[in-house]
Amino acid sequence: MADHGFIGVFDSGLGGISVLNRLVGLLPHERFVYFGDSAHNPYGAKTPQQILGYSREICANFVDEGAKALVIACNTATSVAADILRAEHPELPIVGIEPALKLAVEQGGKGGPTAHGRILVMATPVTLGLEKFQQLARSCGSSAEVVEAPCPGLAHRIEQGRLEDEDLLELIRSLVGEHRGKVDSVVLGCTHYPFVRAQIAEVLGEVPFFDGGPGASHRLRDLLAREALLAPEGQEGGVSFRSSAQDAGTLERYRRFFEMRL
Q1: Residue 66 confidence class, pLDDT cut points 50, 70, 90
Q2: What is the Cα Rg of the chain in Å?
Q3: Residue 186's pLDDT band (boundaries 50, 70, 90)?
Q4: Can 74 be counted among the known catalytic residues?
Q5: Using CA atoms, how far apart are residues 242 and 262, in angstroms rounded to an integer?
Q6: Contact indicator for 191, 124 with CB cutoff of 8 Å
Q7: Per DSSP, what are the bridge partners of residue 242?
Q8: Is the confidence at residue 199, as pLDDT, over 90?
Q9: Structural domain of residue 168, as residue ranges?
Q10: Which of 191, 211, 231 is the last residue of a domain?
Q11: For residue 111, what pLDDT is reported?
């Protein structure tokens, strides 16, 4: 596999662009192709069988086009499909993303370790309900109290844009407002959520936030280096966007979100 190939990145919509921002910052010489499956958004409302089917099709298309690596920039799709895709494509470095719960436990909140503190995990109901997340939560349970906050509809609402509208703040307040002053840190367990970090902070107060983007980015860099697939430093990097949605405004919205500073 050539080091000048591209890296495929996908999500259920535009949420994975928060991960793409991290990837580009860490690997500026790489060429990325981002695919948002906005026609099927939100994955959090789909069955695991549907999510696996979408993920397989997207992965197969990237492989056919010569991708040298794949990033599943979606917590739900990672939980459902990552292990299966790795087994089906052993030749392809595949990086997933998961809620940054371990990092929240290690780094703590409110000025000190989170040991025996309370960590709020905001995620889709599918992500929280899968055994993969439950195992992760159990592994951290001796060091902190993990509080699950299913957020149905939030990713879909972020997908629509208009992040300053009052209805978005009201939705966040209805989902997690009861936890204000009761948690030590917050894990953003969906790649859409970093785009509304400020709104979540307005509802919950100033507590540390953690997301899986940085970890996934460093994991990809390590895999590419191990497989001698890092792009040459002289190569000009770049990003192109694709979507399963047919409306003209979707790709423009992707580009606008990519330009946001997280």
Answers
A1: very high
A2: 18
A3: very high
A4: yes
A5: 22
A6: no
A7: 35
A8: yes
A9: 101-211
A10: 211
A11: 45
Write the CB contacts of 229 (distance below 8 Å, at least 6 apart in sequence). 1, 3, 5, 68, 69, 93, 223
- pTM equals 0.89
Q: Which residue has the higher pLDDT, 209 or 44?
A: 209
Domain annotation covers residue 86? yes
- Which pLDDT band holds residue 98 (cuts at 50, 70, 90)? confident
The end-to-end CA distance of the chain, in Å, is: 33
Pair 239, 254 in one domain: yes
Give CA angle at 205 (191, 169), nearest 5°.
60
Same domain? For 67 and 105 the reply is no
DSSP 8-state symbol, 179: G
Residue 138 sits in a domain whose CATH number is: 3.40.50.1860
Count of domains for the chain:
2
- The pair of structure tokens assigned to 27 is 């690997």
- The answer to whether position 1 is within a domain reads no
CB distance 220 to 27 below 8 Å: yes
Active-site pick, 59, 140, 151, 190: 190
Catalytic-residue membership of 140? no
Residue type present at position 122 = M
Same domain? 60 vs 135? no
Q: Give the integer Cα–Cα distance in Å for 73 and 113.
A: 28
Q: Is residue 61 part of a domain?
A: yes
Whether a cis peptide bond, with omega within 30° of 0, leads into 113 is: no
User: Percentage of the chain surpassing pLDDT 90?
Assistant: 72
Mean pLDDT of 120-137: 88
Euclidean distance between CA atoms 68 and 66, whole angstroms: 6
Residues 196, 159: Cα–Cα separation, whole Å = 11
Does residue 45 or residue 177 have the better pLDDT?
Answer: 177
Decide if 2 is inside a domain: no
